[in-house]
Amino acid sequence: MLEKITIQKSCTIEQHRIVVDDMLVWSSATDMPFSDFAKDAFHHLDIDYPKFYKMDALSKLAFLAAEYILRGEDKDELALVLANKSGSLDTDIKHQESIQDTENYYPRPATFVYTLANICAGEISIRHGLQTENAFFIAEEFPEETIFAYADYLLQSNKAKRVLCGWVEYFQEDYRALFYIF
Amino acid sequence: MTALKEELKRQIIEVLNLEDITPADIQDEEVLFGEGLGLDSIDALELIVLMDKTYGIKLSDPKKGRDIFQSVETMAAYISENRTK
């Protein structure tokens, strides 16, 4: 289905490798935790954005995929359509652990704010100044037809000039980001 | 008081994930919010939790927080006078 509309650029992040348009742009040892891989990949970008360090893993993954795919790209009227399987479950569990013990009840505000899947879309929008349409779908697998239909609708109805869309999944060290620009 | 300020700087760096900043980079009277360290509203909530969890101080009046969290100096002074832990 995705071949029916023009894919202008792609970015994949999985197994500690970042690939843009089939070209490997960053990789690291596969035995390091995601947090270290993400930090190294962020340093490789050589940008000043301290907020990155405060994000949860899902937002770091989405931020990196967006950063690598949007380098040198025009972001005017760029819409955002993302999907994943686990929502924000990884962070939901961390938050739950912090409020589990009623005798030692100290919820972390910085964790709680990431207990929604579409916060990662917000982080991308803030970073790149996107004030366009955005949507976040939860599905067992990459919902190609839904993503295609929504992206096509945004383009055909002139609600966006281009659409950044894709899959961004993170749960307990298992992760995969697959972003496209249409 | 000096030891408390150093302890506070280490805790602020840790709970707020201030990467590439060391206690030596934070001046005692440096403004924490806005300019200075550039902390935001979520950071303020984290500092409220820190005060409660580590020093047994419950802050319920946001107006007070504005004064208390001005700098490490003001935080340390308030903690010294009000800590229960």
TrEMBL record, chain A:
Listed name of the protein: 3-oxoacyl-ACP synthase
Source organism of the structure: Sphingobacterium haloxyli
Automatic annotation (TrEMBL), chain B:
PROSITE patterns: CARRIER, PHOSPHOPANTETHEINE
InterPro entries per record: ACP-like_sf, PP-bd_ACP, Ppantetheine_attach_site
Highest taxon of source: Bacteria
Signal peptide: none
Keywords associated with the record: Phosphopantetheine, Phosphoprotein
Domain Carrier, residue spans: 1-83
Protein name stated in the entry: Acyl carrier protein
